[in-house]
Design brief:
The protein contains 14 helices and 2 strands. With about 350 residues, the protein is an all-alpha fold. Strands 1-2 form a two-stranded antiparallel sheet.
Length: about 350
């Protein structure tokens, strides 16, 4: 009995056991909120705030006074009031409401922004958003500022999408605003350093969770066959391209895209390209381990989106910007490179001081 126990104790671990132990050790060594310096978090707030202002000024006119394809809260709430700003019976464009009645909406802005050549409460929202973004960037009262920004963004773009112009890039922005607001209220009594760490950690988590959800959806909808069926996506790309051409007869969509044609004739190349993207989404969660993995995953996701834009003409600019701000963290990478050049033995955390 003793000899058996001795042999079991001295038997070297198998390769699988070593891998398992290494993976457990790797997981335990991260996946917790990391300290983030004031200047890092300020730069992130500054860039995110600039992005919000850009989004609020990225005007897509509401085409008609209707939400005929309701999305989200538009299924329960009438958002057509967002369409009207200053009214002037003698000026502006004709609008049609759900009852088919025509009315003239002023081409001028609403309230104090009468000089703005467009109509709707969007202008008031823009002014309020700019004011709140400035407060957010300065770091004051963010638990009050963020919920209002989230509601403003959700209202405008829900109404926009409810008119049939769905763009999924704005959903991530609303989720980010609501998520940061929730963390700000949850941790508002904690020290400033812990609040920063928690806000950054969960901001990254919100982004990465979106990609994990995407890959789970692919697996469910394809009944587990997505990896193999991805070789046929080139056919869908060509079909979408042709539909875009016949819709508006735009010259840029004439002919089949060369990238899709190439993959159509080389299906295993299509498998390689699309399946790499699949695994990037599948392992997006590793971006929560620490700073280095966050940067690596952020860069990988941005490259994934750039390849999708090239292959499929589908641009997710908002997702790329969020990855750039919260995952890649370029200012820290620059600081890390400079610090390592001066002192090669510095750890990533020591570069924050």
């Amino acid at each position: 009995m003793t000899n058996t126990s001795t042999r079991a104790a001295t038997t070297p671990p198998t390769r699988l056991q070593r891998w398992k132990a290494g993976f457990v050790s790797w997981v335990k060594g991260g996946f917790v909120p990391e300290p983030i310096s004031r200047w890092e978090w300020f730069i992130m707030r500054l860039l995110f705030g600039a992005m919000l202002v850009w989004i609020f000024t990225d005007w897509h006119p509401f085409r008609h006074v209707s939400q005929d394809k309701p999305k989200g809260i538009a299924n329960f709430v009438d958002l057509t009031w967002l369409h009207y700003g200053a009214r002037d019976e003698g000026e502006g464009q004709m609008a049609v409401n759900e009852a088919g009645e025509k009315s003239r909406v002023s081409a001028r802005g609403a309230g104090p922004l009468t000089w703005v050549p467009r109509a709707g409460l969007y202008e008031e929202f823009l002014v309020i958003a700019c004011f709140l973004v400035a407060i957010y960037i300065l770091g004051y009262g963010i638990r009050f500022v963020l919920p209002v920004l989230a509601i403003l963004h959700m209202l405008v773009w829900t109404y926009h999408d409810s008119q049939g112009y769905t763009y999924h890039g704005h959903q991530m922005i609303s989720i980010m605003l609501f998520g940061q607001a929730a963390v700000a209220w949850w941790k508002w009594k904690k020290p400033d350093a812990e609040q920063r760490a928690q806000l950054w950690y969960y901001s990254r988590g919100i982004i990465l969770a979106g990609y994990i959800t995407s890959v789970v959806t692919k697996i469910i909808n394809s009944k587990g066959m997505w990896l193999w069926n991805s070789q046929y996506l080139s056919v869908e790309i060509i079909k979408t391209h042709r539909l875009s051409f016949y819709k508006d007869l735009e010259v840029e969509f004439a002919g089949d895209p060369s990238s899709a044609t190439l993959m159509l004739h080389h299906p295993y190349l299509a498998l390689l390209l699309f399946d790499v993207g699949f695994f990037i989404e599948l392992f997006a969660w590793v971006g929560l381990r620490d700073r280095k993995w966050s940067s690596f995953m952020g860069i990988s996701i941005i490259i994934l989106h750039l390849s999708i834009a090239w292959l499929m003409r589908l641009s997710f600019t908002n997702h790329q910007i969020l990855c750039f701000i919260f995952l890649v963290n370029v200012p820290w990478l620059i600081t890390l490179a400079v610090s390592r050049a001066r002192s090669p033995h510095l750890t990533p955390q020591q570069t924050l001081s």
